[in-house]
């Protein structure tokens, strides 16, 4: 990752951090002043996002550190740990929003406020812009923690949309004296909370898979296999393991080559295979190749 790319990553992370802090304060204060349950709950959700942004910045700093004696494979998994933390925060936020919405269903509703509606609308537009910006930077840098933060922003978009619809519906109910309209806010909150829990589950599973060193996709495995077998010196593949280690990939290979091949020839072919894999897939950080003897008549 170039210095310029790192700067873009840090900028995106800091913008998310500052934005989440401002939105948390605004929503909680305005929601408390005008008794908007949806806005307060959305503000608490942003408070969780603020903590998640801190985790993202910390993990990016750690993940960019070079390998050392205690961590010979580098610190790439730091971003996946941060992704797991973000998923937990989202899960707790979703559960909290469901609880607050359920409580609101059984309490008399306060008069809807245009200030609360305006705050929710500003939050919706702000978070939409943050999502589009962060997901673009995260995918360009292949930063899992930034991508996780982007999806967290997207969950906020849905939460803010629910608040806008709920508060707006309640405001319409006040104007036209529709008693049932006041329940639009908590009902919308429950629906969006379920969407937030879905995002948390998907992010959590992704982080767990990497931390448990699950294999890369079958499609990518097949790509590596075909690339290795394209070298005529390789007579068979005895083992091929490729796993994600944070934002890069580690590969272990055992291949069969002619039993009379010299050490120098063996060294040359392993270097060619390693260079070819890294050239075709820049995400590959390390390729460990073990040579097994192959003799005519053994087959492939």
Integer average pLDDT: 79
The main β sheet shows up as: 3 strands, mixed
Order of helices and strands: HHHHHHHEEHE
Summing up helix and strand content along with how strands pair, one would put the structural category as mainly alpha
- Count the E strands: 3
Strand content: 5-15%
Q: CATH homologous superfamily of the largest domain - what is it?
A: Cation efflux protein transmembrane domain
Top CATH class of the largest domain: Mainly Alpha
Shape: elongated
Name the helicity range: 55-70%
| Model regions low in confidence, pLDDT < 50 over at least 5 residues | none
In whole angstroms, the N-to-C terminal distance is 39 Å
Write down the Rg: 26 Å
List the total number of helices.
8
Strand order of the largest sheet: 1-2-3
CATH fold-type name of the largest domain? Alpha-lytic protease prodomain-like
Taken together, the total number of domains comes to 2
Question: At CATH's second level, what is the architecture of the largest domain?
Answer: Up-down Bundle
Describe this structure in words.
By secondary structure, the chain is mainly α. It folds into two domains: 3-211, Up-down Bundle (Alpha-lytic protease prodomain-like); 218-294, Alpha-Beta Plaits, CATH 3.30.70.1350. The chain has eight helices and three strands, in the order H-H-H-H-H-H-H-E-E-H-E. The chain has helices at 3-33, 37-63, 78-105, 114-141, 144-176, 184-211, 218-229, 263-280; strands spanning 236-245, 248-258, 284-294. A three-stranded mixed sheet has the order 1-2-3, covered by helices on one side. It is elongated. The chain starts with a helix and ends in a 6-residue tail after the last strand. The relative contact order is 0.12.
């Amino acid at each position: 990752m170039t210095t310029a790319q790192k700067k873009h990553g840090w900028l995106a992370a800091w913008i998310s951090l500052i934005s989440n802090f401002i939105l948390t304060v605004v929503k909680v204060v305005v929601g408390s002043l005008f008794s908007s349950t949806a806005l307060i709950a959305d503000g608490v959700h942003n408070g969780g996002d603020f903590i998640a942004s801190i985790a993202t910045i910390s993990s990016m700093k750690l993940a960019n550190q070079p390998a050392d004696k205690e961590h010979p494979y580098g610190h790439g998994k730091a971003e996946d740990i941060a992704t797991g933390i973000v998923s937990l925060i989202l899960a707790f936020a979703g559960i909290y929003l469901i609880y607050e919405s359920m409580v609101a269903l059984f309490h008399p509703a306060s008069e809807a406020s245009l200030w609360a509606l305006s705050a929710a609308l500003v939050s919706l537009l702000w978070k939409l812009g943050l999502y589009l910006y962060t997901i673009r930077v995260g995918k360009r840098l292949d930063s899992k923690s930034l991508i996780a933060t982007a999806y967290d922003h997207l969950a906020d978009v849905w939460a803010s949309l629910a608040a806008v619809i709920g508060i707006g519906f309640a405001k319409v109910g006040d104007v036209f004296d529709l008693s049932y309209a006041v329940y639009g806010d908590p009902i919308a909150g429950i629906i969006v909370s379920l969407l937030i829990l879905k995002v948390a589950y998907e992010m959590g599973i992704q982080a767990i898979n990497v931390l448990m060193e699950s294999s890369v996709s079958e499609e990518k495995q097949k790509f590596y296999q075909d690339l290795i077998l394209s070298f005529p010196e390789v007579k068979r593949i005895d083992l091929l393991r490729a796993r994600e280690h944070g934002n890069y990939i580690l590969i272990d290979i055992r291949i069969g080559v002619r039993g009379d091949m010299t050490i120098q020839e063996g060294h040359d072919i392993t270097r060619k295979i390693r260079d070819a894999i890294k050239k075709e897939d820049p995400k590959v950080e390390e390729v460990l190749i073990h040579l097994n003897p192959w003799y005519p008549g053994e087959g492939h």
